[in-house]
Amino acid sequence: MLRVDVTGPVRAVLTGRPARFTVAVTNTGTVPLRAVTLGATVPGCSGLLGDLAPGQVGRPLHCERAMESDDLVNAVTATGTDPAGRPVTGTGSATARWARTGIGVTAVPDTLRADAGSLITTTVTMHNTGNVDLVNVVVTDPALPACERVLDRLAAGSRQDWTCVTTAPARGEVTNTVSATGMPDVEDATPIAARTTAWVQVLAALPPGVLVPPASDSEPERPRLATTAVRVDPVSAFGLGMLLAGALMMLAGLRRRRYPVRGAYRRD
């Protein structure tokens, strides 16, 4: 019989990084096997091992293949021939897990405007958006050290939240920049990082003696518009009409005196 032992990467492998395998074949039978040959999914692990005596372990074969965006299975088959000419086979496999890393951090204050001297509470959230754990996660915040944390491990797809408090200054704004770095738990790891910034506007305190008028729930009185129409009393209107009629009659009389009618004559 042939036993095929295939070992692959202990940790997940990032896309484009090499996934390394080792294949070892053992003749577990009681008779020698001739011309033991390997066939593998990863070509570098295929080839001729040669003859194996009972209990003998063949020379290990090492191979690798660039990781794609999926798990990689290296299936190996060993085939030999016993003294009677009968084929003897054995199989084994190992899987290299594909790694996708991701990290995120958010900082959310409980208000966007704060009075001078008031307390501002910020919620910081760390996200592991990948499919592998993050180790040695370090969160820094130069403006607000109370927001800083060190996490030994953040599981794949998980998050962790915490809050920190600061006092608003006399004026200006509070700028809170949070940075996070973490090491993916993968083969050939390199750190990944994320950063976010939150702003809170500070409303400056009023000088001593200056009071803010209380807010009113009622609607403020609207200014009245000026009245442009003229109201005329009926008696006054009648008198005005009589005056106009008299003036018209006087004008007519003056016109007749100044311009007599042509062709008129007087009879005795």
From TrEMBL:
List keywords of the entry alphabetically. Membrane, Transmembrane, Transmembrane helix
**NCBIfam families linked:** B_ant_repeat
Give the protein's recorded name.
Answer: DUF11 domain-containing protein
Which source organism does the UniProt entry give? Answer: Gandjariella thermophila
Instruction: Give me the segments passing through the membrane.
Output: 235-254
Question: Which InterPro entries does the UniProt entry name for this protein?
Answer: DUF11_rpt (IPR047589)
Say which domain of life the source belongs to. Answer: Bacteria
